[in-house]
Amino acid sequence: MRNFSYQRPESNHAAVRAREGRSTMFLAGGTTLLDLMKLDVMRPEQVIDVNRLPLDKVKKTADGRLEIGALVSNTALAQHPEVKTHYPVLSQALLSGASTSLRNKATTGGNVMQRVRCHYFRDGVSPCNKREPGSGCSAINGMNRSVHAVLGTSDQCIAAHPSDMCVAMAAIGATVLVNGPSGSREIDFLDFHQLPGETPYNEHALRPGELITHVVLDAPADGARSTYLKLRDRASYQFALASSGVIVAVQDNRIQHARIAMGGVGTKPWRAANAEQSLLGQPPGREVFSRAADIAFENARPYAHNAFKIPLGKQAVIRSLITATS
Amino acid sequence: MSESNQRYIGQARPRIDGPKKLSGEARYAADHHLPDMTYAYGVFSTIASGRINDIDTSAAEAMPGVIDIFHHDRFPSLHRSPDNFANGTKVDEPRLPFEDDRIYYAGQFVAMVVAESFEQARAAAYEVQVSYRPDTPITRLEEALEQHKPTPDEGSRHERGNPDSAWKKAPQRIEAVYNTAMETHNPMEMHASTAAWDGQSGRLVLYESTQGVVFTRNTIARMFGLLQDKVEVKAPFIGSGFGGKLFVWPHAVAACAATRSLGRPVQLMVPRAQMFTTTGHRPATRQTLKLATDADGRLQAVIHDSVNSTSMLADVPELCGRCTKSLYACDNLRVSHATVPMNCGTPTAMRAPGAAPGLFALESAMDEMAEAVGMDPVAFRLRNYTERDGSQDLPFSSIHLKQALEEGARRFGWEKRTAKPGSMRDGDEILGWGVAACNWEALKVDAKAQVTLQADDRVLVSCATQDIGTGTYTVIAQGAAEALGVPIESIDVELGDSRYIYGPLSGGSWVTASILPAVAQAARAAVEELKGYAIARGGPFESRKKDDLSFENGALGVKGGEMLSVAEILQARRLANAVGEASTSGELGKAYSYRSFGAHFVEVRWDPGISRLRVSHVLSAIDVGKVVNPRTAANQVEGAVAMGLGMALFEHTEFDQASGLPVNNDYAEYLVPSHADFPDMEVMFLHYPDYNFTSEGARGVGEIGTTGLAGAVANAIYHATGKRIRDIPIRLEQLMVDDLAATG
User: Fold this and answer.
1) Domain range spanning residue A233?
2) Is the pLDDT of residue B332 over 60?
3) Among A171-175, B87-91, B177-181, B558-562, which stretch is predicted with the lowest mean pLDDT?
4) In this predicted structure, what is the pLDDT of residue B406?
5) B163: which of A2, B395, B512, B607 lies 20 to 30 Å off by Cα?
6) Interface check A123 vs B, CB under 8 A
7) Would you call B407 a catalytic residue per the annotation?
8) Alpha-carbon distance values, B440 to A118, A235, B633, B646, B699 (Å)
């Protein structure tokens, strides 16, 4: 960790204004930022601690949506009655992530901003286009089993997005509220995270100095059931090899509403819109689910050690759809 | 001592050091912050092979708080350790830190910054610019085998009969190659040294996280050219070691050199990432097994040839055949070992070295052989049961492998097992049941102990051995309480200081067996000294002879007459204490082969719909002689089983092939079992004291639980899935071959 200046403003406005044009990071739970600073991978010159901002509330909006303050902890969000009742996929996703102590510290805004777990990014020395643009990607021809993607990859970067929470939010549908030097604006959750493409160092849609203040979940779908299934080597405390968050509503034995998002397999929280389309109007059943899973992975590209993520990801989709409809 | 009268030995007792650990009172190596202390941080090689071109420290030197920066051009001249186990100077890696400009592995110390604070040292370490001339590294066993001819370890080779021809002639035979991955010890407490040199007295004090304060003292003294009594090494508590802290590693040498150079205390912690490089590991192994039986399933030939990876700096053979040579009856047998170098740090012992990977291979092969001859795996092992060690042609001092297999099978419900793979189902899940034998040498080493009866009626037992988390404090207190007949609450135990009377290295599962006889003898010697005070002029039993007096329940007196407490006797003479010392030999009688035995029964659950594998039940029937403390012993077996699960399913230290850099050197990506992975676990001790081994009959329990476990898991996985996986850790993609084929 290198020297940096530190401020702890009391208001959103002050937090956004505190930025001085140097490399600046907002500090919330610190579970990503402090780790990477200690590893010397992130070297902010200025750290603005946002923990005193009034952003720790969950409230229902007039139009039935759920507004989550950026500082609401993963634990608090997972246990919130509204979330447990109306968004079980989100509660389950949060509880499948990290460990109790990390979830107590990690925040909603911070989790949206979680950095990748690619070891070549984190080791500070290997070529990595995310850390050092133009240096190359060590993972493409290196070790790429566990924390690398098969969807949304490019020749510049194949690191998987590690968040479970974001997968559930992608399935639910959400809006990210941000506050910045030029005021407030809204970003659709699906547009928030960027594909690596030619610019893997651009990870999200935030403009310089913008701060996430809230994530607003879409109103829960009528009559829908949802679930999150995370597959990994060990039973706890591991990033997903493949995961699936689904929301399904069935009426008269026909699927009326379907959302599918996947984790561990994509370079961003991966919404499978075509797969959802294939389910609509169909009777729930293994064959229909299996076709949807095939569609979800039709553009998948395997690498030397992670080809298994394609069948594994399909299994996650199929089983979670079975669970949500049985 | 008759067993039925024992009040403490054999009783389940909580750890006497538990409250200190829970309250934070227990201080570990890096918990010591000495006056005027400085903090060191390493600069570690980012190449795996080659030379250092140049080290530019100018930017780092200008950083706040920086005191000094050491590297190969700026490091005091030291001496290598004689590297001799017998005189307590063994090291794994003979090279001293900063000895020259050569790089043998990624993560090797190339420089060390010393600063006023830890944070300043770390920040400056990042500013040290090192340029290298890299060579192409080799970090995989298969590559190493392509490039180097293995070096045989002749001393550990054993051959009897005609194994090769017997194998060829036998009616039933199998041949298979098994691979085990490199694993890293991951004790919670990282390696750390807090070193303080006192220039005036020429003394060095070192708080070190070590499994051997005496070995560390001896080694450091040799390296620095000091007399042994000028070096004090302290490790009253260590956050475990699993073998990785048996011997001195470069960081300790670097910290001691820095404090002597600077004249101020220096603390150096090894970062978690470097725990994967510069402080030892279990090497990767490749093992070829050939088994053959007659038509009735009697073993006719066993051949176990293994090779393991080692570093460029030392040949460290992993003795995979150490159990194979005597576990089953077979007249035609060979075990052999060899090493092949690659660009990794030097391997060392990791819990049940040799036996853990070796029994994975042997017990997998036994399963394959049982199937080839159409026998149940338990019945096949019983068919080849023997009470003689064929490698030494001696009877075992005490063996209950038969009971472990039979009683374990009964309790596990083995008779309900259906033999066909995949034939046992529960909902979405397929059950697999597997068995494997476990085996470990019963070892004993020289030990001493001091017992002090104090004027406040408390008893102090001290010894320069360690409690590495296994319960040594507690079993020593039990031993002393038993020998003296006093309440265990009146016993204090002090360990982990090289100034105490000689104590053994904490390794090999030998401490309990080695130290208890010494404690009992020292207790008797202390009582003898007390008797001497009691009968001397002015003593309360002045007119008596020693033989008239007996010591019972903490009091001394004439049988049937007045009994006086230790305190009363010592106070009568105005003495502080009565001290007894004892020294016991590690030598064992030549009439027997001494080993521990057991059997693991494992249930796995395989959900093919989501490719999920979990171990749901483990029953371990363990034959380790007398169990001194069933509570801490069961804890040892449970921990060993967890480690075995890690070996079977998760643990694999991996390197990037091109750069040779480790890629999973943290707790998130190097997987060990989490609590949620730990199965329903039953530990079943067989309780047959081995009085041929020691007077206490206890054989030690630290390692045996890790042996055989990976084999039992692999066998259970075969039973569930029909897939015989011979490479561990077993990962779900190895079981998904059909799904992968379907995907194309």
Assistant:
1) 225-325
2) yes
3) B558-562
4) 98
5) B395
6) yes
7) no
8) 40, 30, 15, 19, 10
Residues on chain A touching B46 (C-beta within 8 angstroms):
125
A180 lies within 8 A of chain B by CB: no
Chain B positions touching A117 (Cβ under 8 A) are 668-669
User: CA of A127: which chain B residue's CA is closest?
Assistant: B659
State the amino acid at position A270 in one-letter form: W
CATH number, domain containing residue A319: 3.30.390.50
CA distance B622 to A75: 42
The tens digit of pLDDT for each residue in A198-228 reads: 999 999 999 999 999 999 999 999 999 999 9
- Look at A125 and B46 and tell me if their CB atoms are within 8 Å: yes
| Chain A interface includes B664 (CB < 8 A) | yes
State the residue for tokens 């603005």. Answer: A48
Spell out the domains of chain B, with CATH numbers in brackets.
3-25+445-584 (3.30.365.10), 32-136+188-239+245-276 (3.90.1170.50), 354-443+592-743 (3.30.365.10)
Average pLDDT of span B215-225: 98
Note the pLDDT of residue B3.
54
Measure the CA–CA gap between B310 and B286, rounded to whole angstroms. 12
Spatial CA neighbour of A32 closest among A152, A93, A90, A112: A112
Q: Is residue A232 part of a domain?
A: yes
Contact A146 B669 (CB under 8 A): yes
Burial zone of B724 (CB within 10 Å; 0-12 exposed, 13-18 middle, 19+ buried): middle
Within a domain: A55: no
- Structural domain includes residue A292: yes
- For residue B171, list its beta bridge partners: none
Q: How many domains does chain A have?
A: 1
- Report, as ranges of residue numbers, the positions in chain A whose pLDDT lies below 50: none
3-state secondary structure at position B369: helix
Q: Where does the pLDDT of residue B4 fall: very low under 50, low under 70, confident under 90, or very high at 90 and above?
A: low
**B301 in helix, strand or coil?**
strand
A144 has a chain B CB within 8 A of its CB: no
> How far does A123 lie from chain B, in Å, by closest CA?
8
Token pair for residue B226? 């000091």
Say whether residue A146 is in contact with chain B using an 8 A CB cutoff: yes
| Amino acid (1-letter code) at residue B159 | E
Cβ <8 Å between A125 and B661: yes
Does B649 touch chain A if contact means CB atoms closer than 8 Å? yes
The one catalytic residue in B93, B183, B189, B703 is B703
CB pairs below 8 Å between A and B: how many? 98
Q: What is d(CA B391, CA B354) in angstroms, rounded to the nearest whole number?
A: 17
Inter-residue contact B634 to A82 (CB < 8 Å): no
Pairing assessment for the beta strands B266-269 and B285-293 based on DSSP bridges: unpaired
CA dist A69 and A78 (Å) reads: 13
Chain B interface includes A262 (CB < 8 A): no
Q: Angle at Cα B720 formed by Cα B717 and Cα B721, nearest 5°?
A: 80
Report the C-alpha gap between B711 and B645 in whole angstroms: 10
Strands B388-389 and B299-310: unpaired
Residue B278: partners with Cβ closer than 8 Å, 6 or more residues away:
B44, B105, B107, B108, B109, B249, B250, B251, B270, B345
**Taking a contact as any Cβ pair under 8 Å apart, which residues of chain B between 40 and 79 contact chain A?**
46
Residue with tokens 């979830």: A103
In a domain, A236, yes or no: yes
Q: Dihedral sign, CA of B199, B219, B520, B526?
A: negative
Rounded Cα distance between B643 and A235, Å, is: 15
Q: Look up residue A221 and give its two tokens.
A: 């779908």
Is pTM beyond 0.90? Reply is yes
- pLDDT confidence of residue B6: 86
B98-127 residues touching A, CB cutoff 8 A: 119, 122-123, 126
Q: What is the helix (H) or strand (E) element at residue A212, kind and residue range?
A: strand A211-217
Kind of pairing between the strands at B424-426 and A174-180? unpaired
SS3 state at A110: helix
